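Q: What would this complex look like in 3D?
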Amino acid sequence: MMLSVQNAHVSFTAAQTKKWPWSRPGVVSAVNGISFDLEAGKTLGIVGESGCGKSTLIRAVAGLTPLASGTVTLNNEPVAYENRASVQRLRATMQMIFQDPIASLNPRMTIREIVVEPLTFFRTDMSMEERRTAAMAMLERVGIPATQANRFPHEFSGGQCQRIGIARALVAEPKVLLCDEPVSALDVSIQAQVVNLLKDLQREMGLAIVFVAHDLGVVRHISDEVLVMYMGAQMERASAADLVREPKHPYAQALLSAVPVPDPRTRITPQMLEGDLPSPMDLPPGCLFASRCPKAMPKCHTSRPPAIWHGQHQAACFLLEDRAVAASDVH
Amino acid sequence: MLSVENLHIRFRTGDGMVHAVNDVSFEVGAGRQIAVVGESGSGKSQIALAIMGLLAKNAEVEGRIMWNGQDLLAASNREMNRIRAREIGIVFQDPMSSLNPYMTIERQLTEIVEYHEGLSRRDARARALQVMDAVRISDAKARLRAYPHEFSGGMRQRIVIAMALMCQPKLILADEPTTALDVTVQAQIMQLLADVQRDLGTSVVLITHDLGVVAGFCEEVVVLYGGRIMEEAETIALFDQPTHPYTRGLLSAVPNIKDPSDALTAIPGSPPNQHRFPQACPFAPRCVDAVDICRDTLPALRQGRACLRPVEELT
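A: Here is my prediction, written as structure tokens for the whole assembly.
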């Protein structure tokens, strides 16, 4: 397995919530026990609404935010996030691209310097000349003419900056690419260019991609599997096609029902969710979605359903378990 | 009811002139829902600001914006003030920056009707309560005393819509009203706008980049590129048989969650430079169907399309 995340938790202390100087600060649980496996050449999409912890999860996997608990294995070796040096070693294999393409490039470096930099770190075996040649080839590959390599990031459009970000991430030939909302800042016509570029590069390099986005249409197009998060927990995981065709978890159903369809003959009937989200500083013992779930049962409020495979879908919902039990009773 | 005629908007900037909107004309009938669709820089928001008389100081405007027989571009400030609240309402993309963080929701809602309709504080408060109920904010009585930061993004957008509705305008301009919101909240806000249109017969001009939202909500679509109208049609006709290469490209670049095919066809190239008034079709440099004539002739909008190539000859 190229990348495997087991039972990842991430939490933040919220110092400003302290009532008294000597009282303990509150703890915000941002990611609550996420597990997934990803093979080389495959894409896992992670979707959910803002604040569901999807970006925090991949930042923790990248070592940008500490994991509270859980394990990450990369190419079957456990990842140690102990210190700067170990995290930097990790980045030779695992790279990331970010939402704001312009802000993620250093404005005082030329794009050639930007793309050469990872090679300076990770390919000490290469000569300066070889690094430069490799960087130019990578820039050309993502569609930036080598003649523009001496320009600065502000001279490029958002779509071009995202291409440069991709070139920087992939120039040292990592195995895993983490993408945090890579196309949400781009226009539709440019977004498709970048999505197609990522798919082509994945095929050529055998990359494993984790693609975090709130746009379910884009995720559907790029992902093999999709994981639906809510309040930092997995609600459902299934192949992109299965999830879109027949979501099993009530939250996944509500989320997908609200996605607008660019076809005036298709009428969508969005499910409206009532109720409030639980506080991330005081998580309920039951299912995190129970307070807004239209199908919640009494036990949903008292114990948390585990994520279990139901056919092709892995979903955390008691309703499905009862149905599975009911079905097995009949047989 | 509203008719935009040969509208040009230019901005004087440090880098020279920027031609944001070039010769745009369209009409909005009573009770209609029109979408103005375009990517960033297409000029779609500037059209809304021009209608409201809110363009930046360095803007130069040409053309006419006729509102029930009156040219809004020639109207006095005093006249515009009256029209702005009582006849045309506007909803912006970011609800937090449309609300005053120092004022309670009640004051922001009542201020409008006290000023424009001379209502007493008490009547204004009653109106605010009713409108809050209508936009489905529960426990409106208590929530009126709250400040904007106490609400979620979706609730704030409901409040902004309530503000726009306070004087029962005949037209609402919604400038990317759901872009900052999650998809489930977006569905609720679009449902609310549809209810307003149905219950009150209010016309809506929806300015957006999201063709999914357009398909579910609008009857008619105006497609902008580089500040010019590329195509204009009834929604169903536009999605079924787009006649302009840009519309076709845009539609095939939008991921459709219901569509099992994996192909997303990108439009090659980058958006146009708008420092010069277009002398040719602004889309020609990115167009798969462009021929020589497209690169030196400016196509006029005829029968809802601005393209020099006949529909039959397009790929």
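A: To summarize the key features: Chain A has a mean pLDDT of 91. Chain A touches chain B at residues 49-50, 157, 159-160, 187-193, 195-196, 214-218, 220-221, 241, 244, 254-268, 270, 272-273 (CB under 8 Å).
Q: Very helpful, thank you.
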